[in-house]
Amino acid sequence: MTFVLPSPNGRFLLVLCSAILAALLSYFGMRNALAAHYQDTDTRAGYERAVQLEPADARNWYLLGRSYLYDLEQPDAARAIQSFRKAVSLDPYSAETMLDLANAYDGEGDTAHARESYVAAQKVYPLSADVCWSYGNFLLRQGQQQEAFAQIRKAVELEPKRATEAFALAMRVQPDAKVVLDTVIPASTADYLPIIGALANAGDLDTAQVVWERLIAFQSNGLQSIELRQRVPLRDMVNYVDAAKQRRGPAAYVRAWQQAVSIMQNPPPLDPPGSLIWDGGFESGFAGGGFAWRYSEHIRNVQVAFDSAEKHSGNRSFRILFNGRENLNLQDVCHDIVPEPGTHYLLTSWIKTQSLTSSEGVRLQIFVYTPDHNEAVTTEEVHGSNDWKQIQLPWTAPPGARFGNICVRRLMSGMPESNIQGAAWIDDVSLVAVPEAAGKP
Q1: What are phi and psi of 299, to 5 degrees?
Q2: Which residue in 102, 192, 339, 406 could disulfide with 117, CB within 3.0 to 4.6 Å?
Q3: Distance separating alpha carbons of residues 280 and 269, to the nearest angstrom
Q4: Residues 247, 205: contact at Cβ < 8 Å?
Q5: What per-residue string of b and e applies to 39-69 under the rule 16 or more CB within 10 Å gives b?
Q6: Are the C-beta atoms of residues 114 and 131 closer than 8 Å to each other?
């Protein structure tokens, strides 16, 4: 259908109105674009220009308020409050604006309006970890510890990465770690582990132990599911175990390790009863902390690794490859032990070699520290090409021997042309207490 204007004046009026409308749209579009440009400059002057161009845009006022509040050189809390209030009037559902308004009031000592703004922000966004955290800190400064701890706990529940900071903050006003765990930190492995790690790194093993024991207690609780009790990666616990070794001695070291492996994820098959060697079959694939095997992946002229293709039993063994460039002394693959002085032990291992040259092959060594002297004993060495061969060494822990290690050794050969080349595999290592008669060579 065609619409016919009644007169030339009508046509002129339509064209004029269209031109005016287009000009207005163009003007407002350009003004909005300019405001966005000034907003993107991220400067106070830019925000001030943006609110002049677009005074009905709540975000322009919010950004202007932040520029006043958080400017380290020229802060202006009063103007920040004015800008935030304007932003809230335009957008009463912005929790971030209300939170910054509360912080501004708090900075000015206006606790009544600060509290009002925190409460308003929480009503708008009750699941905001930032709001709960800031409100909790505010309440803590007001001396309302119980209410503050409830807000901080909620922040941690919403955002577990805050757990370590929350624990440290709460401990400043409540030095009883058990109370802090009860009231501030949810009973969660994800929350406890970073706290334990931070405390262990800081040397506060007393407090770390409180959190650790709580972790072990709720993970080992019969009411917890098997899935929950087995879900803790061992690598996340060895930091505390090693701290116990360094600061508390052998007994605490052993206890912490036993607790850790009792709740570890994917535990390896059990070792022979009473063995001082954990994971003697190298089945866990874990190395580098606690009572796990320790070795460097960068040993000169040697390559070491777990090997799933060659094993005496289970799924893997430990392989050592020598490249033939050096007559070296190897003592880099070790396992801590805590023997009982005067106890008779039998060290057992299986070794396989392939084209292992020189007169000195591989062997195992027991080394222990005592108050009077250090003692080292070694098994027979194995070189050449051998299928899996069992080696054993009876040994009695000397008086005072409470800590030591077992290492894979290769001693330097005194023969000419003794650069060692070839491969050796180690598997099924154990060190178990035996009757005295069995402990004699």
Answers
A1: -105, 130
A2: 102
A3: 10
A4: yes
A5: beeeebebbebbbebbeebbbbbbbbbbbbb
A6: no
Name, in order, each residue with C-beta under 8 angstroms of 139's C-beta and a sequence gap of 6 or more.
Answer: 145, 147, 148, 151
Q: CB within 8 A of 237, min separation 6: which ones?
A: 193, 196, 260, 264, 290
Output the pLDDT for position 30.
47
Show the tokens assigned to 254. Answer: 């052993």
What amino acid occupies position 390?
Answer: Q
Superfamily classification of domain 302-433: Galactose-binding domain-like (2.60.120.260)
3-state SS, residue 310:
coil
What single letter denotes the amino acid at residue 173? V
Lowest mean pLDDT among 181-190, 197-206, 220-229, 392-401: 220-229
- All structural domains of the chain with their residue ranges: 26-262, 302-433
pLDDT tens-digit map of 51-65: 777 888 888 888 888
- Any bridge partners for residue 364, and if so which? 408
Burial class (CB in 10 A: 0-12, 13-18, 19+), 394: middle
- What lies within 8 Å, CB to CB, of 270 at 6+ separation is none
What's the pLDDT score for residue 373? 87
Q: Classify residue 411 by its DSSP letter.
A: P
- Give the confidence band of 38 by pLDDT, cuts at 50, 70, 90: very low
Angle among Cα 228, 230, 235 to the nearest 5 degrees reads: 120
Nearest to 65 by CA among 93, 40, 36, 97: 97
Whole-angstrom distance, CA of residue 293 vs CA of residue 277: 9
Tell me how far apart the alpha carbons of residues 95 and 77 are, in angstroms, rounded to a whole number. 19
Strand partners, 333: 408
Contact partners, residue 390, CB within 8 Å, separation at least 6: 348, 349, 350
In the block, tokens 């006022």 appear at 61
Same fold, 26-262 and 302-433: no
* Residue-level pLDDT at 437: 55
pTM of the predicted model as reported, rounded to 2 decimal places: 0.82
- Identify the band that residue 311 occupies on the pLDDT scale cut at 50, 70 and 90: very high
- Whether CATH 3.30.70.1290 fits 26-262: no
Phi, psi dihedrals of residue 6, rounded to the nearest 5°: -70, -25
Cβ 325 vs Cβ 301: under 8 Å: yes
Provide the β-strand partners of residue 377.
366
Instruction: Name the residue type at position 78.
Output: A
Cα four-point dihedral sign 133, 134, 136, 137: positive
